Amino acid sequence: GAVVSQHPSWVICKSGTSVKIECRSLDFQATTMFWYRQFPKQSLMLMATSNEGSKATYEQGVEKDKFLINHASLTLSTLTVTSAHPEDSSFYICSAIQAQTYEQYFGPGTRLTVT
Amino acid sequence: GESVGLHLPTLSVQEGDNSIINCAYSNSASDYFIWYKQESGKGPQFIIDIRSNMDKRQGQRVTVLLNKTVKHLSLQIAATQPGDSAVYFCAERGGADGLTFGKGTHLIIQP
């Protein structure tokens, strides 16, 4: 089946620094990728929709200047958490929609801890 | 979309019994529904899906039922095994948007 990878799988950063998370579709082209955030014992919440070559669409309440999304190619989207704070600590999960089938595949997630 | 609670509901079943996990969805315009399994520290894993023009779909040991009248979705797992222990989420999609996930249910298999 189609595979989506995320890098890094976990990261610890200091408050005030920025961290970049990559999401790659390994064996298919993804015109659309999504970024979700999941706090402990909670559900996944959609943060933004990322379309290749265009600006991301953010869900209500998600700061676009804080969570920078770049979808530069059909296989790569990046999420940069800028000026991270401890409350940004969460599990960030991306998913990608295969262009031909429109099926959605999830990455394994990235655990971000801000100290 | 669905609201997110602070605590996941828990369903505890004996190994070998059948499990039924329920989900209420909110968007009557949603036309596609999916059940995901999520193990601790991992991303969601696809289990089974159903489109709004169907009311039942069966897979291997799993069955999804859709009741559009009351906006209810259920996942039935037959003969549960220890490996079925996980959090199960339903998700809905309307159009080209990202998925809206339900609150999740923590399934615990008792030996």
Secondary structure: number of strands of chain A:
11
- Give average pLDDT of chain A, whole number: 94
> Helix tally of chain B?
0
Could you tell me the radius of gyration of chain B in angstroms?
A: 13 Å
Concise structural overview:
The complex is a heterodimer of chains A (115) and B (111). Chain A has 115 residues and is mainly beta.
Search tags:
heterodimer, A: 115 residues, mainly beta, seven-stranded mixed beta sheet, four-stranded antiparallel beta sheet, 0% helix, B: 111 residues, six-stranded mixed beta sheet, 10 strands, globular, disordered N terminus
Can you offer a commentary on this structure?
The complex is a heterodimer of chains A (115) and B (111). Chain A contains no helices and 11 strands. In chain A, the strands form 2 sheets. In chain A, strands 2, 4, 5, 6, 9, 10 and 11 form a 7-stranded mixed β-sheet that branches. A 4-stranded antiparallel β-sheet of chain A has the order 1-3-8-7, with no helix packed on it. Chain B is mainly beta. Chain B has no helices and 10 strands. In chain B, strands 1, 3, 4, 8, 9 and 10 form a 6-stranded mixed β-sheet that branches. A 4-stranded antiparallel β-sheet of chain B has the order 2-7-6-5, with no helix packed on it. The N terminus of chain B is likely disordered. The chains are: A mainly beta (115), B mainly beta (111). Chains A and B meet through strand 4, strand 5, strand 9 and strand 10 of A and strand 9 of B.
